[in-house]
């Protein structure tokens, strides 16, 4: 059976973007019913929604009353997503009002609900809106953080509707089996690969694309977590709802992760961190000459995962909470499990995700396979599949360790 999705549309100028979101759902095989508010129909008319969805469209509980739509639509849905969600609509949802078909649907839905807010920055930042968002999140509802950028008129700031493709990816993660078991948890994830500058043009780096780290971030968001994503040289769109901190080098990544880890319940070190960096960096481009080039002397980079483990050990000795679950990643080319077990022993983490890398393996690919080594348990094999599947299994293991 096709997943049944209710697309609620609030009365904001961003309503036109929901047409693209509707197309993404229908073209990927979802059964979509559009439920706009009365105000939304002033931006995009009923014929447009009906033509794109192939279903009747109404904002009123009084239409087709013999089918009891105000109860049936919500009860039969596998997912309700509201995009755009205006400040008014968030307020009505938070307070349980039911004065149109969409708010009735929200009250009767027993499936996951996702709100994608869109409004002016001042409206989003107002204490009333923030209180309503907090109330909805406390109930297990997923409220995506709005994007920053151009708003209505000449204004810019936070409040822009996230890209429809990002909203769609979040909804896919939810439909894939999100359990809400990370609701209220603060998660720090590193992703990508660090670059260590040789001169203003060249660097020492690696092949990590950040795909696995971003899959972990999207899955955690779909399961209700508050996510800080420390991204090293990643060219992917920001996961909707994540706080993204961009870094380049291993030292910068270390500083960003340690700064965020103090308030985190879970830290996942999925980034590929360079082991070494040049002792010195040339201030101008190194020119090619007929002479042999000068050697580049290297020094060790900080071992961020080991440092996190040591900080956690010291904090716990002092009776202070710190990173209830610590997850590391180990990319190996040979002796994969032996090297992984040695790393697990010296890093001080709870879980170590060990995978083989190399030609057409892991880096830059949409699929991955791994063995999760567990400090106090048996290893878990993850067969090759989409990186989202691996992310889901990792979060299952993490959630089981959270108190």
TrEMBL record:
<feature type="binding site">
    <location>
        <position position="343"/>
    </location>
    <ligand>
        <name>CTP</name>
    </ligand>
</feature>
<feature type="binding site">
    <location>
        <position position="347"/>
    </location>
    <ligand>
        <name>CTP</name>
    </ligand>
</feature>
<keyword id="KW-0511">Multifunctional enzyme</keyword>
<comment type="function">
    <text>Catalyzes two steps in the biosynthesis of coenzyme A. In the first step cysteine is conjugated to 4'-phosphopantothenate to form 4-phosphopantothenoylcysteine, in the latter compound is decarboxylated to form 4'-phosphopantotheine.</text>
</comment>
<comment type="similarity">
    <text>In the N-terminal section; belongs to the HFCD (homo-oligomeric flavin containing Cys decarboxylase) superfamily.</text>
</comment>
<feature type="region of interest" description="Phosphopantothenoylcysteine decarboxylase">
    <location>
        <begin position="1"/>
        <end position="186"/>
    </location>
</feature>
<dbReference type="InterPro" id="IPR005252">
    <property type="entry name" value="CoaBC"/>
</dbReference>
<feature type="binding site">
    <location>
        <position position="275"/>
    </location>
    <ligand>
        <name>CTP</name>
    </ligand>
</feature>
<comment type="pathway">
    <text>Cofactor biosynthesis; coenzyme A biosynthesis; CoA from (R)-pantothenate: step 3/5.</text>
</comment>
<feature type="binding site">
    <location>
        <begin position="302"/>
        <end position="305"/>
    </location>
    <ligand>
        <name>CTP</name>
    </ligand>
</feature>
<dbReference type="InterPro" id="IPR036551">
    <property type="entry name" value="Flavin_trans-like"/>
</dbReference>
<dbReference type="InterPro" id="IPR007085">
    <property type="entry name" value="DNA/pantothenate-metab_flavo_C"/>
</dbReference>
<keyword id="KW-0288">FMN</keyword>
<feature type="domain" description="DNA/pantothenate metabolism flavoprotein C-terminal">
    <location>
        <begin position="182"/>
        <end position="399"/>
    </location>
</feature>
<dbReference type="GO" id="GO:0015941">
    <property type="term" value="P:pantothenate catabolic process"/>
</dbReference>
<dbReference type="GO" id="GO:0046872">
    <property type="term" value="F:metal ion binding"/>
</dbReference>
<keyword id="KW-0210">Decarboxylase</keyword>
<comment type="pathway">
    <text>Cofactor biosynthesis; coenzyme A biosynthesis; CoA from (R)-pantothenate: step 2/5.</text>
</comment>
<comment type="function">
    <text>Catalyzes two sequential steps in the biosynthesis of coenzyme A. In the first step cysteine is conjugated to 4'-phosphopantothenate to form 4-phosphopantothenoylcysteine. In the second step the latter compound is decarboxylated to form 4'-phosphopantotheine.</text>
</comment>
<dbReference type="InterPro" id="IPR003382">
    <property type="entry name" value="Flavoprotein"/>
</dbReference>
<dbReference type="GO" id="GO:0010181">
    <property type="term" value="F:FMN binding"/>
</dbReference>
<keyword id="KW-0436">Ligase</keyword>
<keyword id="KW-0479">Metal-binding</keyword>
<keyword id="KW-0285">Flavoprotein</keyword>
<dbReference type="InterPro" id="IPR035929">
    <property type="entry name" value="CoaB-like_sf"/>
</dbReference>
<feature type="domain" description="Flavoprotein">
    <location>
        <begin position="4"/>
        <end position="174"/>
    </location>
</feature>
<keyword id="KW-0460">Magnesium</keyword>
<dbReference type="GO" id="GO:0071513">
    <property type="term" value="C:phosphopantothenoylcysteine decarboxylase complex"/>
</dbReference>
<comment type="similarity">
    <text>In the C-terminal section; belongs to the PPC synthetase family.</text>
</comment>
<dbReference type="GO" id="GO:0004633">
    <property type="term" value="F:phosphopantothenoylcysteine decarboxylase activity"/>
</dbReference>
<keyword id="KW-0456">Lyase</keyword>
<dbReference type="GO" id="GO:0015937">
    <property type="term" value="P:coenzyme A biosynthetic process"/>
</dbReference>
<feature type="region of interest" description="Phosphopantothenate--cysteine ligase">
    <location>
        <begin position="187"/>
        <end position="403"/>
    </location>
</feature>
<feature type="binding site">
    <location>
        <position position="285"/>
    </location>
    <ligand>
        <name>CTP</name>
    </ligand>
</feature>
<feature type="binding site">
    <location>
        <position position="329"/>
    </location>
    <ligand>
        <name>CTP</name>
    </ligand>
</feature>
<dbReference type="Pfam" id="PF02441">
    <property type="entry name" value="Flavoprotein"/>
</dbReference>
<protein>
    <recommendedName>
        <fullName>Coenzyme A biosynthesis bifunctional protein CoaBC</fullName>
        <ecNumber>4.1.1.36</ecNumber>
        <ecNumber>6.3.2.5</ecNumber>
    </recommendedName>
</protein>
<dbReference type="Pfam" id="PF04127">
    <property type="entry name" value="DFP"/>
</dbReference>
<dbReference type="GO" id="GO:0004632">
    <property type="term" value="F:phosphopantothenate--cysteine ligase activity"/>
</dbReference>
């Amino acid at each position: 059976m096709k997943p049944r999705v209710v697309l609620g549309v609030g009365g904001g100028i961003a309503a036109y973007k929901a047409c693209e979101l509707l197309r993404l759902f229908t073209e990927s095989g979802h059964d979509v019913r559009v439920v706009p508010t009365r105000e939304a129909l002033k931006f995009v008319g009923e014929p447009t929604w009906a033509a794109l969805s192939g279903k009747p469209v109404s904002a009123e509980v009084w239409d087709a009353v013999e089918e009891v739509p105000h109860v049936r639509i919500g009860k039969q849905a596998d997912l309700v997503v509201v995009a755009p969600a205006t400040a008014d609509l968030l307020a009505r949802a938070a307070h349980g009002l039911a004065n149109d078909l969409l708010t009735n649907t929200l009250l009767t839905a027993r499936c996951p609900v996702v709100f994608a807010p869109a409004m002016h920055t001042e409206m989003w930042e107002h204490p009333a809106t923030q209180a309503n968002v907090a109330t909805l999140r406390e109930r297990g509802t997923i409220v995506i953080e709005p994007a920053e950028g151009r708003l209505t008129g000449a204004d810019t700031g936070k409040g822009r509707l996230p890209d429809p493709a990002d909203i769609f990816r979040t909804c896919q993660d939810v439909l894939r089996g999100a359990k809400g078991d990370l609701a209220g948890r603060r998660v720090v994830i590193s992703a990508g690969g660090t670059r260590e500058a040789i001169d203003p043009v060249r660097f020492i780096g690696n092949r990590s694309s950040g795909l696995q780290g971003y899959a972990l971030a999207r899955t955690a968001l779909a399961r209700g977590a508050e996510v800080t994503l420390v991204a090293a040289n990643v060219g992917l769109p920001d996961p909707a709802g994540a706080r993204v901190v961009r870094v380049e080098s291993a030292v910068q990544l270390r500083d960003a992760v340690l700064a965020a880890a103090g308030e985190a319940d879970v830290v996942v070190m999925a980034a590929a961190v360079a082991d070494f960096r040049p002792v010195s960096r040339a201030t101008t481009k190194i020119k090619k000459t007929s002479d042999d080039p000068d050697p580049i002397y290297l020094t060790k980079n900080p071992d961020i995962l080991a440092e996190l483990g040591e900080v956690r050990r010291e904090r716990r000795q002092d009776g202070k909470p710190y990173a209830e679950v610590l997850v590391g990643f180990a990319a190996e080319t040979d002796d994969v499990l032996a090297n992984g077990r040695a790393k697990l022993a010296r890093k001080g983490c709870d879980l170590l995700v060990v995978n083989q890398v190399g030609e057409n393996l892991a880096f830059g690919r949409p699929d991955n396979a791994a063995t999760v080594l567990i400090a106090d348990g048996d290893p878990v094999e993850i067969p090759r599949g989409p990186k989202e599947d691996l992310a889901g299994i990792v979060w299952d293991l993490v959630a089981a360790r959270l108190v």
